[in-house]
Amino acid sequence: MRKTFFLAGIGMMLAMGSAFACTNFMAGKAATADGSTIITYAADSYSFYGFLRFRQAADHAPGEMLQVVNWDDGQPLIQIPQVAHTYSVVGNMNEHQVTIGETTWGGREMANKEGIDYGSLIYIALERSKTAREAIACMTTLASTYGYVSGGESFSIGDPNEVWIMEMIGNGKDNKGVVWVAARIPDDCISGHANQARITYLPLKGAKKKGDIYTSKDGQWMWHKDVIQVARDNKFFEGKDEEFQFNHAYNPFDFTGLYVCEARVWSVFRKFADDMDKYLGYAAGKVYLATDGRDAGEPMPLWVKPNHKITVQEMKDAMRDQFEGTELDITQGLDAGPWHTKLRYGGLGFKQDSMQYWFERPVATQQTAWSFVSQMRGYESAKAGGIFWFGLDDAATNLYVPMYSCITRAPESMREGNGDLYTYSPTSAWWAFNRVANWAYTRYSLMRPDIQNIQRTWEDKFNNQVEIIDQKVAQMNADEARTFLTDYSCQQADESTAAWNDLLIYLTVKYIDGRVRQEENGQFKRNEWGEPVGPKGPSYPKEFQDLFKHQLYQEKVK
Fold it and tell me: Does this model's pTM top 0.85?
């Protein structure tokens, strides 16, 4: 049975509609079935509009400046010098297959007064980096040089050979710079983060310092030289250096850090790794409650080794996780209603009579603007490159469409400027997928299987075409390959958008007025004279009938 958690007198309320926004997962090249590295990301915000960000490679004149604009709200920030050449970027993957995602945790109030925001760091680094390590150097140098105006962040940073998690926070409002730590995910492991800092102890023994950066003895960790000292100066940490834990200092656990954030990581880890259920008490915040907030219990590891080689499709499906099969399943319980919807009103919970009540927060959520599964294929030639599987709106009801890393334009259906949050566009993929999802929320358990059928059909088609496309591209020169892959990617995006518009029509006809139209051989059923056969139920489940039967007129029946 799923349990609802509540807290009394809790002093950690957040802006319920925007807090705990995103989710990332990562896989090393030895952990995947095809030898690619993988990063997944869901950009979850009620204020974001979903489109495919696209930037063409460009040369820049000496003295040219780049205007930095805050990714969250569009506010102009500072100007910084442009570099001589910038790389093309498709979504969050560049032409060298470098990919960057993020999740915000905020943590201590340490943002600088001026500088660059976290979103701009991502996209500037993508335009300037050929490898994950170059991206880390670019992001940390920019933030240290010009300042950092955002809260604490975890970044997933990868290329075809390496995947890293980097956690960063400002060094104080009156300063200009950041402290950070970065860890390379072992090639045979998976990792994840979801709005809670996850890096604990640093491998200090044998570390070497060069400039402002320490590098671990094995070269798999890096951190800013002041990461411990800044924590001491601000009284976030006391004790010996070897006792320092980054997340305890800069983003100490509270109930929401576990139940709302770490639970998402746990739910996906348990799909791929053995013996993860022992962390349920930790992920669900039970240990935190049992100890009155003094101890969050034994944390989950930063990474785990999967029990099989993971496919790209499995990573797509992981982004659709709703805690199914666990006591945190958001599609179960009274708050899910008779049709098991995952939609909740009012954000993450509500207050009543001096109590705070919390809903679950799954990976797949209604406020997702867009998400991706980045397949960084180092074994493929530069002509084909990586595949940026891109989806709009709720991952549970969306479609991951292949966008190749070398394409030269964005599809019309996903183009920036084709509609916005308040401007409906009939050709916009974001609006097409939103309309289907929001109709499905009204009778989720009934409609979602229909959506999953077409979802599987399209994604099976895409998966089956990958090898065929690789073979075709191998026979082309670079320019021919770019043209072919651009046309293919754009065609799939626009055709699948049209398919989702058709899906909405089908679902509207089938489920209009609270009934279900009967089907036969793929068609809505008609009688022998061609007239529509009447619809069937459904009726309310018994547990819901029991809730309101006392309010209804009652008549004894035989």
Answer: yes
In sequence order, which ranges of 260-372 are alpha helices (DSSP H)? 263-272, 280-283, 286-290, 312-318
How many angstroms separate the most distant Cα atoms in the chain? 90
Tell me how far apart the alpha carbons of residues 494 and 258 are, in angstroms, rounded to a whole number.
39
Q: Where are the domains of the chain?
A: 5-358, 380-419+427-514, 519-551
In DSSP notation, 46-110 reads TT------EE--EE--TT-EEEEE-TTT--EEEEEEPPSEE--EETTEETT--EEEEEEEE-SS-
Amino acid at 101: G
Taking Cα atoms as reference points, which of 91, 47, 41, 55 lies closest to residue 73?
A: 47
Task: State the residue for tokens 């489109």.
Answer: 51
pLDDT digits (tens, 9 = 90+) for 448-478: 999 999 999 999 999 999 999 999 999 999 9
pLDDT, tens only, 16-27: 334 558 999 999
Residues in the chain: 558
Report the sign of the C-alpha dihedral through residues 64, 68, 69, 75, in that order.
negative
**Dihedral over Cα of 447, 453, 456, 459: its sign:** negative
* Nearest one of 95, 12, 52 to 386, comparing CA atoms: 95
Measured over the CA atoms of residue 268, residue 271, residue 276 and residue 280, the dihedral's sign is positive
**Both tokens assigned to 541:** 């489940």
Burial of 425 (C-beta count, 10 Å sphere; 0-12/13-18/19+): middle
